[in-house]
Amino acid sequence: MAPGHSPCASCKLLRRRCAKDCIFAPYFPSDNPNKFAFVHKVFGASNVGKMLQELPVDQRADAVSSLVYEANARMRDPVYGCVGAISYLQNQVSQLQMELAMAQAEILCIQMEHQEPLAPSSATLADGIVPVHPAHSSMSTDDVVSRYDSLKRESSSLWT
Ligand SMILES: [Zn+2]
To answer: Per the database record, which ranges form the LOB domain (predicted)?
Structure first.
């Protein structure tokens, strides 16, 4: 270790000498001690070291960001970990898909309404169709957009 070079977050926490070829040093810089602390707490430093050693160098950064994500999720939700976040997001996706299908059905209804005046007996035909206007539906486009933004925030906050 060169003089003045500070040990990586891993070696600092484990109170050991940070070698020049330290496997943790490229991924756990000393300025972000929590990143390693959480990974160490959830997976154990030696397991993480073994996992990184088994991987080609070009895949290690991806593996570390996955481990950091999973460790952060486990700290937030000790029971379900990132599975909790995944099923929360999957529920949101299916709810939004349902809302999208409903909106598409409403569009079809409105399009059919506009075609009505062509038929001579439009008054009687229209009685059978209950028009659903976007203003009356429970969720506007703005709501869906803001829900999507909060989803993005939810998923990105796990990476910090
Ligand atoms: Zn180190």
So the answer is: 6-107
